[in-house]
Amino acid sequence: MRCLSILFVAAFSLHVAAQPANPSRALTRLQQWMVGRFSSEAQAKSDSAFFDIRLHVVPIWQHRTDGYWLYVEQAAASALDKPYRQRIYRLTQTGDQFISTIYTFANPLQKAGNLAAVERLTPDSLITRSGCEVILSQMGKKAFEGSTIARQCPSELRGATYATSEALIRKDRMVTLDRGYNAQDQQVWGSTRGGYVFIRKP
Hints:
Radius of gyration: 16 Å
Largest sheet: 10 strands, antiparallel, barrel
Order of helices and strands: HHEHEEEEHEEEEEEEE
Helix content: 10-25%
Shape: globular
CATH topology: Lipocalin
CATH class: Mainly Beta
Structural class: alpha+beta
Number of strands: 13
Distance between the termini: 20 Å
Strand order of the largest sheet: 1-2-3-4-5-7-8-10-11-13
């Protein structure tokens, strides 16, 4: 079953994006550009170093006014019903900076493709990935760009002690680069050939 596609259709047939209190036009634009169905298929076809990955982002908790809340599923195209990454993001703004706070939650695969189950979560049930916030800046009116801060995002994956995330967000695509490093600052996981290019799908 193509859980991510079902999830996306359900989100837009039942929900309107959350509206934080007095959001700026820029914050609303960022949220709108992040919500959608994205694919790295074109990149995977042109460069065998990259996999065909599908990324779906849908709005949740539309009644809340403390930021834009988004549910994220990321899966290989060959295993859409088994996403390898499920997160909740909260988008807020402080001055000229846009903060994407990252959260995880218990038993994520039980909620894969099931937006109703995600909606039943509450903010106090989430696990904050402290230090893993992505801090974005607006680059004119055509892009947002940013990253995590230095070595602050802890990771134990494949011998790493910390991870970094970089993101470039445009109206038609998102480019993301996630990497893990050991205590000697040597890269132990993640792309060594640049970021994944996720093209927005209709």
